[in-house]
Amino acid sequence: MFEEEIHQTIISGNLFSSGETVAIGASGGKDSTVLAYIMKLLNEKYDYGLNLVLLSVDEGITGYRDDSLETVKRNKEQYSLPLKIVSYQELYNWSMDSIVRQIGMKNNCTFCGVFRRQALDRGANLIKADKICTGHNADDIAETVIMNILRGDIARLRRCTAITTCSDDDGIPRCKPLKYTYEKEIVMYAYFKNLDYFSTECIYSPNAYRGYARAYIKDLEQVRPSSILDIIHSGEVMCIKEETKMPVQTHCERCGYISSNKLCKACILLEGLNKGLPKLGIGKTPKTYRTEGASNSQNLVHVQTVLVRARQKLAPEMVL
Ligand code: SF4
């Protein structure tokens, strides 16, 4: 059933066409390992006619990514799929270890997230992929919906529930075949199939903000078990007012990557790192979310307070 549901998601969402090269974002974690296994299985069972390639990003995190990449290398042999690895060091001349040495453990995920998104695109370009598919599951998407609502980030709110997103005509489309698959199902499937995956958390993971959204959704699920799919559905049908200003997509003047400003976020962050001013480019929040005179940390506290209050209303005894 698990496999058939994902097949139905792929077919009804028109995710792929025969003959395409599909890069599977592979981190060695449970989601991407299950995704790689299922894509290979369904491609053969239903004759999708896809050319599948594992694509990994090496952020340069000693004791975490080096170990998880060993898992991906084993998956490459186990599933007989080619593997391409791109690293932050070769793309940006910085590893996450060296970035954290410079900026500390605050904002490190901002650098990592911006660089990873671009690295996946660059890797997919190198292998001439037509599509990128990632292992985002239903829980991830519901959390992102809640986070984007609380941040007032309308542009991301609109994109985050789309099963296929493409920020520009010449960008590589990204799709999420596990969009409607619960994290619990993925863990059980990986266990049942005895899949080889890596389950350690990143050593630089603070993840506080997402953690609040996750805890809130877990509470919601106790009073309404369908909450995760309901939130995704709400995100899908949410109407954004016509007059709402959306960022205009153009290309970065420096590296050519898709951007809504003259310079893309990765180039601004890199410039800050190279000049010894790592805070340059950090901390922009959507105007709709920013309150007059409030700093980012004040805004984050505001979001956390909203979530804690929501959880208290839901079940006061659950919140310490
Ligand atoms: Fe990168 Fe942060 Fe994720 Fe670690 S937790 S891999 S630093 S985004």
Automatic annotation (TrEMBL):
Matching InterPro entries: CTU1-like_ATP-bd (IPR056369), CTU1_C (IPR032442), Ncs6/Tuc1/Ctu1 (IPR000541), Rossmann-like_a/b/a_fold (IPR014729), TilS/TtcA_N (IPR011063), tRNA_thiolation_TtcA_Ctu1 (IPR035107)
Keywords for the protein's UniProt record, in alphabetical order: ATP-binding, Cytoplasm, Nucleotide-binding, RNA-binding, Transferase, tRNA processing, tRNA-binding
Domain Cytoplasmic tRNA 2-thiolation protein 1 C-terminal span(s) in chain numbering: 251-280
CDD domains noted in UniProt: CTU1-like
BP GO annotations: tRNA wobble position uridine thiolation
Single GO cellular component term: cytosolic tRNA wobble base thiouridylase complex
Cell membrane recorded as keyword: no
A single GO molecular function term of this UniProt record: tRNA binding
KW Cytoplasm (keyword) present: yes
Alphabetical list of Pfam families matching this protein: ATP_bind_3, zn-ribbon_14
Entries under Gene3D superfamilies matching the protein: HUPs
Top-level taxon: Eukaryota
Binding residues for ATP: G25, A26, S27, D31, V57, G135, D140
Domain tRNA(Ile)-lysidine/2-thiocytidine synthase N-terminal: 22-217
NCBIfam families: TIGR00269 family protein (TIGR00269)
Name the UniProt record assigns to this protein: CTU1
